[in-house]
Design goal:
The protein is mostly beta strands and 184 residues long. It has a single domain, classed as Protocatechuate 3,4-Dioxygenase, subunit A (Sandwich). It has one helix and eight strands; from the N terminus they run H-E-E-E-E-E-E-E-E. It starts with 9 loop residues before the first helix and ends with a strand. 30% of the residues are buried.
């Protein structure tokens, strides 16, 4: 007999709800987050910083929280999340490290970073680039997208499952979350 959500412990139900691809039938495995292109604007050596928004005075502030899990749905401690994106006007800083940084997950695989909602540039929808590297594991390179964005449908790289979850906008502040599942 397979478990139903009504008999699963509350903590597991919460984990399943936050984990892309997880289901009650496969409570011990999580679907890996899909890889996407790195793009032309990646720069190695970004500093450790969680407040990328401090690099700019314009744009809607966006705080993203989440977790990094492995394929067995276990938290990944010490995973490095390397982030880079365009500013609110769709421009990348290709000379320095504005709107570029790295955060590291805690013992429960949790992370937080604050940035700005990225602007659109020709040919792409608004997105945030991400590399997630678990200790001793393979790096996942992917992108995060804003939900309910009309530009998503016209973007050749966009994948719906890479949309930020629970996106909330209130004035000039937005919040969202995302759970990455990586191979170790």
């Amino acid at each position: 007999m397979r478990p139903t959500l009504s008999v699963l412990p509350a903590a597991l139900v919460t984990l399943l709800a936050l984990t892309p691809g997880a289901s009650a039938q496969s409570a011990s495995t999580c679907a890996l987050t899909p890889a996407e292109t790195e793009g032309p604007y990646y720069t190695q050596g970004a500093p450790a910083k969680s407040n990328l928004a401090a690099d700019t005075r314009t744009g809607t502030r966006l705080t993203v929280t989440g977790r990094v899990l492995d394929a067995k749905c276990q938290p990944v401690r010490g995973a490095v999340i390397d982030l880079w994106q365009a500013d609110a006007q769709g421009q990348y800083d290709n000379r320095g490290f504005a709107l570029r940084g790295k955060v590291t997950t805690d013992a429960q695989g949790r992370y937080t970073f604050t940035t700005v909602v990225p602007g659109r540039y020709p040919g792409r929808t608004e997105h945030i680039h991400v590399k997630v590297t678990p200790p001793g594991g393979r790096t996942l390179t992917t992108q995060l997208y804003l939900p309910n964005n009309a530009n998503n449908a016209r973007d050749r790289i966009y994948e719906k499952q890479m949309e930020l979850q629970n996106y909330r906008l209130s004035g000039t502040q937005a919040t969202a979350n995302f759970t990455f599942v990586v191979a170790r």
